[in-house]
Write a structure and sequence with these properties.
Layout: E1 2-3, H1 7-15, E2 23-24, H2 30-38, E3 42-47, E4 50-56, E5 60-67, E6 81-88, H3 93-104, E7 108-118, E8 132-133, H4 139-149, H5 160-168, E9 172-175, E10 178-185, E11 188-196, H6 205-216, E12 222-227, H7 231-239, E13 243-254
Parallel strand pairs: 5-6, 11-12
Antiparallel strand pairs: 1-3, 2-5, 3-4, 4-5, 6-13, 7-12, 7-13, 8-9, 9-10, 10-11
Length: about 260
């Protein structure tokens, strides 16, 4: 396994994979990889017919892969808990076949998510003054909320350095007891995390944060990934104009605790 220390090295490895018939679960770009490289958290493992990419976290790692047409996965035996997410549509049969290879390699399905998309347009309300763009002084509270509301393995929580950069860029909104984390997406923006402390739920905080999100993004198009076993979240987004767009993903784990 090789630790990536420069983006040029990674780019050369990725370029070798970009050929007809390759399937991948990687939707990351230069801006996603650079913080990982700077933190010393990015590792790769080339193999005949593909490439594995690992993003290290404190107690686990996230796995992305490139698999060329007709190739087989390597004999992969993770030494730490490894989380893999594969998003597909009904027509993505080659990627579904790759997912079956990962299951045969020992990855256990944990749960599924579905993507929901909202067209551009105003929301039902106006955010109260309590909602504001987060500052770096609030980073400890932001980390606490994310850690308390999302699973550390599968909750897609960014490393603290990357989260700090996103706060500085204005991509986190906060209110007493709640936060909303967003990012750019090809079609507008993506809502990454919406969290409210459990004792404060059902008091309109999530709706206020969402209304502020719409205001900040000029009511632009939005998408969000939602666990399919979370009816309250599915209902909240449906109420606010999101509909399923045909994308679903399965989250798998393998390794020491998987």
């Amino acid at each position: 396994m090789e630790q990536i220390q420069s983006y040029d090295r990674l780019a050369s490895l990725l370029a070798a994979q970009l050929r007809p018939g390759v399937v991948t679960n990687a939707v990351l770009g230069r801006g996603d990889y650079l913080p990982e490289i700077e933190a010393g958290a990015l590792f790769v493992e080339p193999f005949p017919g593909g490439l594995l990419i690992f993003r290290r976290r404190k107690a686990h790692q996230l796995l992305n892969f490139y698999l060329q047409r007709g190739a087989c996965l390597p004999d992969f035996r993770p030494r730490r808990t490894t989380v893999l997410e594969i998003a597909t549509r009904a027509r993505d049969t080659a990627l579904q076949a790759a997912a079956a290879q990962w299951v045969a390699a020992g990855f256990r399905p944990l749960f599924s998510r579905q993507r929901m998309t909202r067209p551009a347009g105003p929301g039902p309300g106006v955010a109260p003054p309590a909602v504001h763009v987060a500052t770096l002084a609030e980073l400890p509270e932001i980390c606490r909320l994310l850690d308390s509301c999302f699973d550390p393995l599968t909750g897609c929580i960014p490393p603290q350095a990357a989260l700090a950069a996103q706060v500085e860029a204005g991509w986190v909104l906060t209110a007493p007891g709640g936060l909303l984390h967003m990012a750019k997406s090809p079609a507008g923006t993506e809502l990454r995390h919406l969290a409210v402390d459990k004792p404060l739920r059902r008091r309109g905080i999530a709706q206020a944060l969402f209304d502020a999100y719409l205001a900040k993004t000029d009511n632009g198009a939005s998408r969000v990934w939602v666990r399919q076993d979370n009816p309250p979240a599915l209902g909240f987004y449906a109420k606010n104009g999101y509909v399923c767009d045909g994308w679903t993903s399965l989250v798998y784990a393998a390794g020491k605790d998987g």
